[in-house]
Amino acid sequence: MRKATFARLGAISALVGLSTGCGFEKSVYDIELNEAELSAVPFVCDNGRKGFTRAWEVSAKQRWTITAGEHGDTRIEVPGYFRTQLHQVPLDETPFIVNGTSSERGPFQFVGLESFIEDDTGSGTVVQRFVIEGDSLEADHVEGFIDLRTELMDANFDTPTCHYVVSFTGRRVD
Q1: Is residue 10 part of a domain?
Q2: Looking at the record's lineage, which domain of life comes first (predicted)?
Q3: Which end of the chain has the least Cβ crowding within 10 Å, N or C?
């Protein structure tokens, strides 16, 4: 009797496992950044300063690949421009891979972080977040924003934090 019960439970578990699939693995999206925001990136700082900064030198139309990590996490592959923006290195065509949150439920965030020292004039931190709003990384359409946050300390120990935001929409292609 026990063997039959365990056999049935094993068969049910196998069917449930097959019917639910293996979970999120990969999605590819054609992304379109908001061109108006991209050409004059809006920003706001915690010291009250706000306005628009120079255009980001990146194409408004991009392809982003999101993959599952090894431990329920995610990764996003975006154009190399974003590595240049974060790490202040020469631009190349190598895609930039940014680690993200769990693939279980949204909103989803992918975060890059860089700290630096500028000679004797100060130091700073740059945080780059790619945020996909929604409940699934397998949706046909996505929307969200890129948030570039800078905190720069000058020689007078003034440390305003500024946020630069560009929104996007996307369509799944794979």
Answers
A1: no
A2: Bacteria
A3: N
